[in-house]
Amino acid sequence: MISAQSNHEDDPLALERQVCFALAIASRSVIGLYRPLLEPMGLTHPQYLVMLALWGRTPLSVKELSGMLALDPGTLSPLLKRLEAIGYLRRDRAVTDERQLAVRLTPTGQALREQALAIPAAVVERLGMRIDDLRQLHESLTRVIEAAGEAP
């Protein structure tokens, strides 16, 4: 008969000790908080990330967006098509290089930024965490992302 580990602190395979498990649960939980805030704007969370990038700088090439969002172009393309279909952005050939697409906000997409300004504060309120704790978490996660990107 195989006995279960009685002390999870000593078990390197204990589910609750896994960084990947904590990250997966945290990610799903936090993204779930965004859903009711984004629905009135007609956005999914991945589309919101695209809009955040474009609210920061427009136009952007698909390649630049892909790099900023850490998404391959095949994943990004359907997001862009959907945002274009609802009138938030346009994809045009770049003036400097016709092989590239330039993604730019429409006036409707730019105006949506005003509505989105309330989202960060609403998420912080729903989390019930201190801003300093969230900033520290962001810094830690950024280090994890960098370390994972450098891993062989």
From TrEMBL:
A GO MF term: DNA-binding transcription factor activity
Main location (coarse class): cytoplasm
Keywords attached to this entry: Cytoplasm, DNA-binding, Transcription, Transcription regulation
Keyword Cell membrane: no
GO biological process terms, semicolon-separated: response to stress
Domain HTH marR-type: 16-146
Compartments where found: Cytoplasm
Cellular component annotations (GO), alphabetically ordered: cytoplasm
Protein name (Swiss-Prot/TrEMBL): Transcriptional regulator, MarR family
Source organism: Actinokineospora terrae
